[in-house]
TrEMBL record:
It is a multi-pass membrane protein. This is LPS export ABC transporter permease LptG. The keyword Ribosomal protein does not apply. The chain crosses the membrane at residues 12-35, 68-85, 106-125, 301-320, 327-348, 360-381.
Length: 384
């Protein structure tokens, strides 16, 4: 009986927690989607009809689910533990040998499927449906990625030889893209190239361009203005000559891909871990600040494991006596606890960004602090 007992109570607790978690997750997602629909009604018109707006919101549901899973796990587990305590079932489990250590191990096992669900939603299904959702909205409105930006998207690039096969040249290129259409066709492209001393070398403009798989941009209707300094006796009074060239089509090697342009138009918190790692590498190669994206990267890596932290926070509620508060009060306390974690996590990210703290440390401190609170609460209630 002792051998079978852990498996029996683990299955029982898992069944209860998963059932409560599913119900609360459905309720929270429905509530947030309702608010999203209300905010989207202002954009409904003859082209962007209400059914299309509803489809746009529903396709965002996986992203919402990945954000809500830890809170739903916390509220659901608090409800289950509070019910077990009120019916004296948890007292029986404790008498049968369920101590804090075994309880935490059980919760770690229960959290594994929820961690996998969070990873699937945040890393695969969420970004995929988010992209489809934006495409549905853009197709209905006839807009493009850069329609909300007055000056388009600006990104830093490195210079390569003219033939596209040579090494990287000293200097820098700044690329401005007006819009990016649904098929990743860039329009209104401008490029400013500088030497290592930041003297302007050329200005290149193109009506449109598309990215080829071999790392090249094929630009159409290109006008290029080259600047060359002529040698003068007085270095303080340089004279420049200009040369204007026009090409019906020009192939140019660049490290700026449509994926990089796309991630510039969404917040780092909505990007996948893979997209964040690629963009962070691009920023560091071009000696740009990657602090915000690094914090978002480590938060995305650590975030699924906060589910165990939420379940550990719920365990002390099972040790509270019935007279310490009704089930409803405990569930309300769980809601406040979950909201406080989300607020503190967001606030700490901004503080770490302002203070230029290490990204990993900034992402680790909030869940570690709440895990410490869970252990401290378990220590208090176990002695009561």
């Amino acid at each position: 009986m002792r051998t079978l007992f852990p498996y029996i109570f683990e299955r029982y607790l898992a069944k209860q927690i998963y059932a409560a978690f599913g119900f609360i997750l459905f309720a929270l997602v429905a509530l947030f989607l309702f608010f999203d629909i209300l905010s989207e009604l202002g954009s409904v018109n003859a082209q962007y009809t209400l059914p299309i707006a509803l489809l746009h919101i529903l396709l965002k549901a996986p992203g919402r689910i990945s954000e809500i899973i830890p809170i739903a796990a916390l509220i659901g587990s608090i409800y289950v533990f509070a019910m077990l305590a009120s019916q004296s079932e948890f007292t029986i489990l404790r008498i049968a040998g369920l101590d804090i250590r075994r309880g935490l191990i059980t919760l770690a096992k229960i959290s594994l499927p929820l961690i996998v669900l969070t990873l699937v939603m945040s890393e695969w299904l969420g970004p995929y449906t988010e992209a489809i959702s934006e495409q549905v909205r853009m197709k209905a409105l006839g807009s493009s990625y850069g329609s909300e930006l007055k000056t388009g998207v600006w990104v830093k690039d490195r210079l390569h030889d003219e033939d596209g096969n040579g090494p990287i040249r000293p200097g820098v290129r700044y690329v401005n893209v007006g819009t990016v259409d649904k098929d990743n066709q860039a329009r209104n492209i401008r490029m400013y190239e500088f030497d290592p001393n930041y003297r302007l070398l050329s200005i290149r403009s193109a009506e449109s361009g598309h990215f080829e798989d071999r790392g090249m941009w094929a630009l159409q209707n290109v006008t290029e203005t080259r600047f060359k300094e002529t040698k003068q006796a007085d270095p303080l009074n340089p004279i420049y000559s200009t040369q204007i060239l026009r090409y019906p089509q020009l192939t140019l090697e660049s490290e700026v891909t449509p994926q990089i342009l796309g991630v510039l138009l969404i917040s780092p918190e909505k990007m996948s871990i893979f997209s964040l790692s690629q963009f962070i590498s691009h920023l560091r190669e071009n000696k740009q600040d990657a602090q915000r994206h690094s914090i978002a990267f480590w938060k995305k890596v650590i975030y699924p494991f906060t589910i165990f932290v939420m379940l550990a926070l719920a365990l002390p509620f099972a040790y509270l006596k019935v007279r310490a508060g009704s089930v409803g009060v405990k569930v309300f306390g769980g809601i406040m606890l979950g909201m406080s974690f989300q607020l503190f996590n967001s606030l700490f990210s901004n503080v770490g960004l302002l203070g230029s703290w290490p990204a990993l440390l900034t992402a680790l401190i909030p869940p570690l602090l709440y895990l410490f609170l869970a252990f401290a609460a378990l220590g208090l209630v176990s002695r009561a």
